[in-house]
């Protein structure tokens, strides 16, 4: 089995375990990471870091999330695997939502959404709009949550997924129903209930989903059918050990508890309360505070005054703990942002160094190549010009005066190019004694004037060059070409400027030629 095939196979297994078995997901990620690092497969390394982060988020492991997120972000900020970067930004949003840093969470959701738009990933857009909606829903702001759930639903319909599509659709429709009920939007409740009914008819296996009867009870109660709703709840609360998992309990039981308290059904309400609080108390300090709040409401509803004093004290302590937790998480988030900023600053400095010519302190050939490509793509309907310059008889200068003096001449020429340039001109050292200037939205006359100014500066400097046959001082020859962007590509533009430089040299050097205006004057003077 080839390395690439083995990595691809491991990735598919991780995707499958992602929905079914988080411990297996983690094991496979560690296996993929070790194998990919050993075989220098960057995509495999990036995928492993991405889904290790997913594992820590799913397990609500905030301590493990922080270093996993930092590692994943550092990796993907230095690699162009946009599909994985999109996933990491989404996971980062979920993590920051969990620690109640909602501003940072939204920043990452929007970054991920931008990549999803660029990649045309409808399923990812569904997930992101759903996550944004959940953030509002958790803050009890159903008015803001509803339109984002609706957008998520629209994108899910265009995702063309198999297998899990119906399950996703069911969860999303249930969220839409619950939001619509909270807003007392009867027409929307009816619409989404009909959609759920059709979905269950088309996919009978969904009727076995444990969330379905509970959701039915909530819907029936909202339509005033208390008896039918109560019978469903009584039937499904007859267990000795709760069959639902933690996620379903935390999602569904708050709605059920509200109904049972309203109906004064103490026995069933107590059963739901204990199961709900059992899981909430294992979660964040904010969740533990929410659990005590539910207990207080239960005690108040059924007149259990002897329990209230202790519950109020517990709520006070939980509130302090929750505030401390928020402060701790905010401080940690601030530290992470600061570290990220410092890392980015370092990367920016390294990138700048990689773009600079260390001798002449101007941009180098690498920057010239990237900047020319950018100018060609972004300049719209404007013009683009290139000037190519080299120092006349520079080899003779080096041979006679020495390389240290030659380096000083290169620095002085580079300084002239920089100081005479305006913000439309980007001077670069191309290599040896050759320089290139990218000129955006300039006419040939303006480029000619720029070269005259450079030549004037060199005449003022009057650097002696007794071996030059063009003059007794250091001089330049230059060729340039300018075109509208619709006329040609940058490579052809460079060739035209290079040809014009050749004409300047053939005519005695210490001069410049324009490809457009001097093309007919190829004979020597």
TrEMBL record:
Which InterPro entries does the record associate with it? Diguanylate_Cyclase, GGDEF_dom, Nucleotide_cyclase, Rev_trsase/Diguanyl_cyclase, TPR-like_helical_dom_sf
MF term (GO), any: diguanylate cyclase activity
List the CDD domains: GGDEF
Q: Where is the GGDEF domain?
A: 382-517
| Cellular component terms per the entry's GO annotation | plasma membrane
* N-terminal signal peptide: none
Share an example GO biological-process annotation for this protein: negative regulation of bacterial-type flagellum-dependent cell motility
Identify this protein by name: Diguanylate cyclase (GGDEF)-like protein
Q: Which organism is it from?
A: Hungatella effluvii
Query: What lineage is on file?
Result: Bacteria, Bacillati, Bacillota, Clostridia, Lachnospirales
């Amino acid at each position: 089995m080839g390395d690439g095939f083995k990595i691809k196979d491991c990735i598919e297994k991780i995707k499958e375990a992602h929905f079914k078995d988080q411990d297996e997901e983690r094991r496979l990620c560690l296996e993929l990471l070790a194998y990919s690092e050993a075989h220098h497969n960057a995509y495999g390394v990036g995928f492993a870091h991405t889904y290790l982060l997913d594992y820590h988020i799913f397990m609500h492991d905030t301590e493990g999330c922080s270093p996993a997120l930092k590692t994943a972000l550092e990796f993907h900020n230095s690699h162009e695997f946009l599909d994985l970067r999109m996933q990491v930004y989404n996971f980062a949003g979920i993590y920051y939502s969990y620690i109640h840093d909602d501003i940072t969470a939204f920043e990452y959701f929007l970054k991920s959404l931008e990549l999803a738009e660029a990649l045309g990933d409808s399923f990812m857009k569904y997930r992101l709009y759903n996550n944004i909606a959940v953030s509002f829903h958790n803050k009890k702001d159903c008015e803001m949550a509803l339109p984002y759930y609706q957008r998520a639903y629209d994108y899910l319909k265009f995702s063309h997924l198999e297998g899990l599509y119906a399950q996703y659709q069911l969860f999303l429709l249930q969220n839409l129903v619950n939001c619509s009920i909270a807003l007392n939007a009867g027409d929307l409740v009816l619409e989404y209930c009909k959609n759920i009914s059709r979905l269950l008819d088309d996919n009978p296996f969904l009727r076995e989903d444990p969330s379905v009867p509970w959701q039915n009870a909530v819907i029936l109660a909202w339509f005033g059918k208390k008896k039918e709703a109560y019978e469903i709840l009584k039937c499904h609360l007859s267990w000795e050990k709760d069959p639902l998992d933690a996620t379903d309990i935390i999602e569904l039981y708050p709605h059920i508890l509200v109904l049972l308290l309203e109906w004064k059904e103490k026995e069933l309400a107590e059963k739901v309360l204990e199961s709900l609080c059992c899981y909430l108390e294992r979660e964040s300090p904010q969740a533990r505070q929410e659990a005590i709040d539910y207990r207080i409401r239960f005690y108040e509803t059924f007149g259990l005054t002897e329990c209230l004093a202790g519950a109020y004290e517990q709520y006070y302590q939980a509130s302090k703990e929750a505030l401390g937790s928020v402060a701790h998480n905010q401080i940690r988030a601030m530290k992470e942002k600061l570290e990220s900023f410092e890392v980015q600053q370092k990367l920016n400095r390294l990138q700048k160094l990689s773009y600079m010519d260390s001798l002449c302190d101007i941009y180098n050939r690498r920057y010239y190549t990237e900047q020319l490509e950018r100018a060609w793509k972004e300049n719209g309907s404007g013009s683009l010009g290139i000037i190519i310059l080299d120092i006349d008889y520079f080899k003779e200068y080096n041979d006679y005066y020495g390389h240290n003096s030659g380096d000083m001449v290169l620095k002085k020429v580079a300084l002239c190019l920089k100081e005479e340039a305006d913000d439309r001109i980007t001077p670069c050292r191309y290599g040896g004694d050759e320089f290139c200037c990218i000129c955006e939205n300039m006419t040939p006359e303006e480029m000619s004037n720029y070269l005259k100014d450079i030549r004037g500066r060199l005449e003022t400097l009057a650097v002696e060059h007794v071996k030059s046959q063009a003059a007794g001082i250091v001089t330049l020859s230059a060729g340039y070409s300018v075109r509208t962007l619709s006329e040609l590509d940058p490579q052809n533009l460079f060739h035209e400027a290079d040809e014009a430089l050749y004409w300047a040299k053939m005519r005695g050097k210490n001069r410049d030629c324009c490809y457009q205006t001097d093309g007919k004057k190829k004979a020597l003077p």
